[in-house]
Amino acid sequence: MRLRPITAALAAAVLFGGCGGGEPPPAPKPASPPPPPPAAAPRPTPGGASGVRPLDPSAGPSLPPLAYDARGRRDPFVPVTLTAEQKGLNLSAARLVGIVRGRQGSLALVEGPDGVGYILKSGDALGNGRVTAISPTTVTFAVSAQPGQGGTTVTLRLPLD
Fold first, then answer.
1. Which domains does the chain have, with CATH numbers?
2. 126 and 120 in contact (C-beta within 8 Å)?
3. pLDDT tens digits for 45-77?
């Protein structure tokens, strides 16, 4: 039973043994003088010249030219251009595959004649038309007017199984 007081005294000695005593910390070193201010950058000259020197080509080794290996993929650095068949997607050739209804409205699942699928909401444009209404079985597009014709609507219906 005498171990508890001895253990407590030993723990207190360890905890308080590191406090005080010993050598005082060294005095702080005197402050060194501040470094000189950096040279002022050249001021822009009137007329738009920035006054910045061009890079020195002899400053280091030149880097090898970069080449992109597409490996069958589209080069992301080349602008996308649409072919004539992609620009003129005709809604009369598209088919309605499905309607998805949710809390925020309905979505129409439309497949183009090329087999590419589109997920559309009211107001989205597809080919030569814009979605005006989505019902549980149909989607209606307002088709822009062609030269010599007026505007019209196209309604795609879900196929009956």
1. 88-157 (2.30.30.830)
2. yes
3. 555 555 566 666 667 777 788 777 778 777 777
